[in-house]
Specification:
Helix content: 55-70%
CATH class of the largest domain: Alpha Beta
CATH superfamily of the largest domain: NAD(P)-binding Rossmann-like Domain
Shape: elongated
Structural class: alpha/beta
CATH topology of the largest domain: Rossmann fold
Number of domains: 2
Strand content: 5-15%
Radius of gyration: 22 Å
Number of strands: 7
Oligomer: single chain
Strand order of the largest sheet: 3-4-5-6-7
CATH architecture of the largest domain: 3-Layer(aba) Sandwich
């Protein structure tokens, strides 16, 4: 995910303005080769060179990483910290920094995996002391990942399953549609492609038309046609209830992350 976001930022602001470091040198070099961004030999070197310090690490290791970088952050002020660690709140990040006497603006990002192909969504949650120009810069830099928008951190646990976990559910639906096509005699490659393109188109219809999904569904269901029969089969199997339950269970799990 860190690499995908770095690629998006390189496209938006120019690779020469991006400097990266990964403890896995192969990943650092691969990103340099792909994007032509700058690389650092240590996290401290990258922090010194950057205004936005973007932490793309797992939630459980974020506190340790922040403590190791605290001296560098303290010596080189005027920066803004950006974190993609799921479940780790702005207050938690600021608390860890405060232990080392570091006070700085913090922006939380929550991206989904389709940012890897420039079709994702990134929710942006800045702390109250984040300058407006930094918020605008982050939003502009992330839009090439797909879409980026400000969001209330208090609702992030509830939103996570809807946009961050849901690609997994969509992949399962695409696979199931393709399986049904294969059962009916459609070649696997074609069935999978047709299913994926149909979901892409359906999503665009919702976003671009502004109409309710139920209305769009009704427009596909001709009286006495094959679509309404399929809809009935999904309803009998508890399709919508299963999806809603998946989202809620993922929400419950999300609340435990970072604690």
């Amino acid at each position: 995910m860190g690499g995908a976001l770095a690629e998006a930022v390189c496209r938006a602001v120019g690779a020469e303005r991006v400097i990266v470091f990964d403890h896995n040198e192969e990943k650092t070099l691969a990103l340099e080769k792909k994007t032509h961004c700058r690389t650092a030999k240590s996290a401290q070197e990258a922090v010194k060179a950057a205004h936005f310090v973007v932490m793309c690490v797992k939630p459980k290791v974020l506190p340790e990483c922040l403590r190791s970088l605290a001296p560098t952050l303290k010596e080189n002020g005027g920066k803004t910290l950006v974190s993609i660690a799921a479940g780790v709140t702005l207050d938690s990040i600021k608390s860890v920094l405060a232990e080392s006497g570091v006070k700085m603006p913090v922006i939380r990002l929550l991206p989904n995996t389709p940012v890897m192909v420039g079709k994702g969504l990134v929710l942006v949650m800045p702390s109250e002391d984040t300058p407006e120009e930094d918020i605008s810069a982050v939003l502009d830099a992330l839009r090439s990942a797909g879409s980026a928008e400000l969001f209330d951190e208090g609702l992030i646990d509830a939103a996570t399953p809807v946009f961050s976990c849901s690609p997994a559910y969509a992949y399962m639906f695409i696979e199931a549609l393709a399986d049904g096509g294969v059962m009916a005699g459609v070649p696997r490659e074609a069935a999978q492609r047709f299913a994926a393109q149909s979901l892409l188109g359906a999503a665009a219809m919702v976003l671009e038309s502004g109409r309710h999904p139920g209305q769009l569904k009704d427009e596909v269901c001709s009286p006495g046609g094959s679509t309404i029969v399929g809809v009935e089969a999904l309803e009998k199997a508890g399709f919508r209830a299963a999806v809603a339950s998946a989202v809620y269970e993922a929400y419950v799990k999300t609340q435990s992350l970072g604690k």
